[in-house]
Amino acid sequence: MEFLQMNHISKQFGNVTANKDVTLSIKKGEIHALLGENGAGKSTLMNILYGMYRQTEGEIYLDGKKLNLSSPQKAISNGIGMVHQHFMLIPAQSVIENVVLGLKDNKTVLDLKSAAAKLKKLAETFHMEINPWEKVSNLSIGEQQRVEILKALFRGARLLILDEPTAVLTPQEAEALFDVLRKLKIEGCTIIFISHKLKEIMAVCDACTVLRKGETIKTIWVKDIVDTRELAELMVGKTVELTIKKEKTEVGKPVLILQNVSYQNKKKVQVLKDISFQVHEGEILGVCGVDGNGQSELIHCITGIKQASKGIIMINGTDTTREKSRKIMSRGVAHIPEDRQKYGIVQEMSIKENMILMSYLHKPLSRFGFLQSKNIENYTKRICDEFEIKAQNTDEKIMNLSGGNQQKVVVGRELSRNPKLLIAVHPDRGLDIGAAKYIQREIINTKKKGGGVLLVSSELDELMDLTDRIMVIYHGQIIETVSTEKTSLKELGELMMGIKNNVEEKNA
Question: C-alpha distances in angstroms, 462 versus 44, 111, 232, 244, 410?
Answer without folding.
Answer: 28, 46, 17, 10, 19
